[in-house]
Give the backbone structure.
Amino acid sequence: MMREHARLVECRRGALCARRTCTSSARLAAVLGLVALVGPSPVQAWIWPEHRDIAVEAVRELPAAERKALEAMWTDLTSDAGPQLCRTLVSAGAEPQSKLGDWSAVCIDFPSYPALGGDHSCSTADLRAVTEKEDWGRKVAWVAQRSKVKLAEAGASPERLEAWNRSHLAMQYVDPAYLTRAAGNNAHFLMPRAPIEEPETIDSYVAKTLAEGAGISATAMYVQYHVLALRLAAQYHAASAAVRPDLARRALLAEGIALHFLEDSFSSGHYAATWGTAAWQKGTHDLYCEIGLTSMTWDGELFASYGDAHMREHDKKVAAATIGQSLSQLTAAASGSLRVSSAANAPEEKAIEDLDFCKAKTLPSMPLDPVAKAEAVRTLRKTPVPSGDQKEVHPPRARADIGPFAGVVAGIAAGPAFGGYDTQAGWRFRTEFEVGARFGYGLEGVLTKAMDGQIWTQATFVADPAQLDVSCPGCPGGTRTNTALPRVPARSALKLAFRMPYYVVPFDLLVLAPVLFFTSKDALQEVIFASASGGLLTIERPLPTNLGTFQFMAGREFGITFWGYLGSVDQFIATPTTPPTQATSQLVDYKSLEFDFPVFEYVPPRAFATTLSLAAEFQAGFSVEFPQNATLPLQGNQPYPGLAPSWFVYLRLRLDARKYFGGASEDWSN
Ligand SMILES: [Zn+2]
């Protein structure tokens, strides 16, 4: 506890090395049980088509001579590569209109590199594989184009949210490592700016991100990969024709990765959510991606942008101007007009080229060519200043529904009941009240907000008023509509309920999770994400609309009520149809187990602020009650054989108030 506290204090001081380590240890402390398996939530940046669109715009705006130089590099690269790369620098083939399965019509062009360079690959070798060799590279491009069309059609939220969710699911389908790749570290985020009392320039900020032991960040990623790209471009300029294709490839791969992280720096969610535990960073990221955030650039101009999946035309143009500047520098190095050293690569430069940046917590240092570094810093002047740290002025923060919680629930269910209690036909009206507590784990919005990853167990006290017949044709003893002799007298009991997502069959995670935990954690993460996204077949995906969320959720929730097992005995009055007794009625003591299966759920827009969540849930479902033990107490406890299963079809309204734990509430003391 003390050590954790000490780390947090260190964090608040803004110590640059402690900062990111702190984030990961606070994360570790915050996440229990399942999240220890799942790891931090994946937060990507601009979605694929946005990443590519920024780069397309940047290439389009390049001066003719620079564009020509870039095209020459591309031609050199493609002369040495297979048919998967488009023949031209920017190609319509990378925005395929072809049918599903017609992969040969799809190709990868240069603006696709920044899109593939961080979210679909973890190193330059990975990026080479996905762009030149791996079949799924083409599928990713195809899915990206489909997502772009769907997002354009969707317009504003909440349909946009649904389109965004579907695009993630489709990406996961064609690239199974998609989610795990994004969950590894903070490479896609910016480090917080310094306290306002310590004037910070882009030079000192860059120095801070590159300091030894500093956590990995989008800025450091850009600087190191861009410097590497410029060095390779300078070597390309000096090289003989025979080795030029390979140097063109390596320079463009390094620049592709650099541009991914430079583009990320322009996404509002990424300059807003600069610190915090997984749930808070994710919640803050999602909030500002959607509503945008005002900042300023390092050279002092007003800056405001939206973020992932919400990019506007203006956002694209502003980011593209800076991406274009970076590309100009690359072409200047490749044509010899920028005096970057063309000496052979140092081992440290090779190490960066070979690095797995999805797993790295900190970037290894590398000697930075002074000319190339100055160019990288010059580019970064036009990027937004990130938000302040925890103890600094920073925008209000939000929390994602992730982590352990406890809460109270209260509800009422009503509907027709039939069967059992001496009835074979007709029906009676049944209501049920419940109040109780719930404990669980939220995995809502781990990927997008349209997920159902809630896992909880609930104990409630349920009370049923007396059930009167509405109709009972042919029932022995007639229709019971008076409260003195109801069909089923008032009763109360303990009810337990459970909820969890499933992969293929209900509650399969109970078996799958422990097995995969010991065999393949990557597979486990994928299974959990797929389950939270509506299962393997995605039919249980929550559908967000303006009116709230609709979900077919059969099998995710299950309840069991113990009638007559705790406390008082449940009784009902039977009407015997056969001797031996001449009495018109018989008192029956009984116990029964009732199994509850909600099928559909509707949740109106819910309130979620910092750590408190309040939701109303409407559920439609059914339950079946099996009598276990029925006796006749006035006849010497003889068994009574006449109780049959009884059914209940209901509509339920439940209020659910939750308090999330895990990690500090950081901004508000609630
Ligand atoms: Zn990114």
Notes: The longest helix spans residues 313-334.
